[in-house]
Design goal:
The structure is a single chain. This protein has 6 helices and 14 strands. The protein is α+β, with helices and mostly antiparallel strands. The protein has one domain: Deoxyribonuclease I, Chain A (4-Layer Sandwich), CATH 3.60.10. Helix 4 links the parallel strand 7 and strand 8. The chain is globular, with a radius of gyration of 17 Å. About 45% of the residues are buried.
Length: about 260
């Protein structure tokens, strides 16, 4: 049985709801929705429309109001939810939520951005190092992992509209791209690229210079699966018609039981 799955940085769930997010969800009937950058606490948002569609929802919000945050919406209740990883500042910034379903686990992640300067870039590098170690430890316990979210890194030149001009910009720095190389060599598969090895699609566009209309974007949102699940991947694409954010959802269909 296949499940349908989307990962979506909504850049504020309250703003996305005002732009018709709930109607879009009702039209698509996804089994599992992972949101990043919710920028809200659960008690600040009216979830009645999505609850009426049959979704259970679980949140890991940042301690700082109006910042970061991740949430999982699922038609089926998970066996377990965890929001603590032991990594800081990731835990206090609401960057990871884990959901277990049977013998597989979803990690919904919002990787830090380094665009605001050197301090946050160093935070990002530390997160990358810590996250790989943490994920590898978890994989020994839960060998079937799906790691989705906004990684804030364009991996290859085929994942960014202008690789030459952006080679010194956070999100496409050599050190970040090297981490992605290491990640995928460690035992994880890029779902989209596995199914679309040469295709060019983006998941984020700047609000400046009419970038989205001109499709001058970056692919920084991913679903990785442990290599043992790669043969379960059925379909992956970017849902560019969804315009509730400066990102678009990444859609994946997998042959898994939910």
């Amino acid at each position: 049985m296949a499940i349908t799955f989307v990962s979506y940085n909504v850049n504020g769930i309250r703003a996305a709801l005002r732009k018709g997010f709930a109607d879009w969800v009702s039209e698509n009937h996804f089994d599992l929705i992972c949101l990043q950058e919710t920028k809200a606490h659960k008690d600040q948002v009216n979830m009645q429309e999505l609850e009426d569609l049959g979704y259970h929802h679980y949140w890991h919000s940042a301690e700082k109001k109006g910042y970061s945050g991740v949430a999982i919406f699922s038609k089926k209740e998970p066996d377990q939810i965890q929001i603590k990883t032991g990594m800081q500042p990731a835990d206090s910034e609401g960057r990871i939520i884990r959901a277990d379903f049977g013998d597989w686990t979803v990690l919904n992640c919002y990787f830090p951005s380094g665009t605001s300067g050197d301090v946050r870039q160093e935070v990002k590098y530390q997160f990358l190092d810590d996250f790989l170690v943490w994920a590898e430890a978890l994989r020994k316990e839960r060998p079937n992992l799906l790691i989705c979210g906004d990684y804030n890194i364009a991996h290859t030149e085929n994942d960014i509209h202008d690789p030459v001009r952006n080679k010194k910009n956070s999100g496409f720095l050599p050190e970040e791209r090297a981490w992605m190389d290491k990640w995928f060599k460690t035992g994880y598969t890029d779902a989209y690229r596995h199914l679309n090895p040469e295709k060019t699609e983006y998941s984020w566009w700047s609000y400046r210079a009419n970038a989205r209309a001109n499709n001058k974007g970056w692919r920084i949102d991913y679903l990785s699966v442990t290599d043992n699940l790669a043969d379960k991947l059925v379909e992956s694409r970017h849902l560019n018609e969804a315009k509730h954010s400066d990102h678009c959802p990444v859609y994946v269909k997998l042959d898994l039981n939910l």
